[in-house]
Design brief:
This protein has helices at 6-14, 29-40, 52-61, 77-89, 103-110, 151-167, 189-202, 217-221, 223-228, 248-261, 286-308, and strands at residues 19-24, 44-50, 70-73, 95-98, 124-131, 137-141, 174-177, 210-211, 242-244, 264-271, 277-278. The chain is of the alpha/beta class and 309 residues long. It has a domain at 124-261: Isopropylmalate Dehydrogenase (3-Layer(aba) Sandwich), CATH 3.40.718.10. Helix 2 packs across helix 11 (286-308).
Length: 309
């Protein structure tokens, strides 16, 4: 059973070697505050790539001591992104973080054929939530990257997210492909695809997890709803670990409602890459950026363990 909390991840980090983030175009106040806190809390070190004069100016304004931070001066933003991602590609850093540049330009560097982090797998986004009132971590996907995932995309999203759940200490996570209803309605493609994902899991085509869909959101997260609806024969009865959203609209709406109304801890990364990619929203708060560095470090540690096996 998943009873892992975000503090367990932070404790796990304290027991392994500190990871290093490479920050593309690091002259950003919010990002510098986050990497400062991450270093102070023992979560991660950072290499700051960008306009050194601007980095030092912003650091002075926020009272940030740059001692111990490596700074690589590259004024052009596109060149800075390529330099920053190459550090991860070459093994000089463990994860890649977006600074003061457009998301499309950041992702272009991630996918660069020479120095990027592509693996040939589809990229997807995962949020890890520790929500007050729930007894476990929950993984939301995809709420920020894939817009309208196909059935094939959803298989890749599940595989990517299961790897993150495993890194967080959760084996054989329960995956709920969400829909408006919990029965297969042939007129609702989302339901049909959810049922097919379940079949693929049962046939051994999707492994390392338990898939049960389609499921309505209440059945996925609330055991009482499962009892009330008489769904006690389902593999998931309010105890889902991974919520697979049908499209970016559904996922993003739920994400933003939660972060603005609930008491929670959360971190976000892009997966399907050679190393964790930290891409937070401009509206994400300071702690989310720090937590995303922590999540990236956890996943980086697991990737390194696998590479040594």
């Amino acid at each position: 059973m998943n009873n892992v909390r975000f503090n367990d991840l932070l404790k796990k980090l304290s027991e392994c070697e500190m990871k290093t983030a490479s920050v593309a175009v690091a002259q950003d106040e919010h990002v510098l505050r986050a990497v400062k806190a991450a270093k102070e809390r023992g979560i991660a070190n950072s290499i700051l790539v960008g306009d050194e004069a601007e980095i030092r100016k912003i650091a002075a304004e926020i009272g940030m001591d740059l001692t111990g931070f490596e700074i690589i001066n590259v004024v052009d933003k596109a060149e800075a992104a390529l330099k920053a991602v190459s550090l991860v590609h070459d093994g000089k850093a463990n994860m890649y973080m977006k600074g003061c540049l457009e998301t499309k330009d950041f992702l272009k560097s991630v996918l660069d054929k020479e120095v990027g982090l592509r693996t040939g797998k589809p990229l997807s986004h995962v949020c890890v939530f520790d929500i007050e009132g729930f007894d476990r971590l929950m993984f939301f996907t995809d709420v920020a990257f894939m817009t309208y995932p196909t059935l094939e995309d959803k298989v890749a999203i599940i595989n990517n997210t299961v790897e993150v759940a495993n890194a967080c200490g959760i084996t054989n996570p329960k995956v709920a492909p969400l829909a408006a209803v919990e029965v297969v309605n042939p007129k609702m493609p989302v339901c049909v695809e959810a049922a097919e994902l379940t079949r693929m899991n049962e046939a051994g085509e999707i492994t390392g997890c338990i898939v049960d869909g389609p499921l309505s959101l209440d059945l996925a997260i609330d055991p009482e709803a499962a009892k009330h609806k008489g769904c006690t024969d389902r593999k998931i009865q309010g105890d889902a670990d991974i919520l697979l959203f049908p499209d970016i609209h559904a996922g993003n709406l739920v994400y933003k409602i939660l972060v603005r109304t609930a008491k929670l801890i959360n971190g976000n990364i892009i997966t399907g890459t050679k190393a964790p990619v930290i891409l937070t929203s401009r509206s994400d708060d300071f702690e989310t950026k720090v937590n995303s560095l922590a999540l990236g470090a956890i996943v980086a540690e697991e990737l390194e363990k696998k590479s040594r096996q």
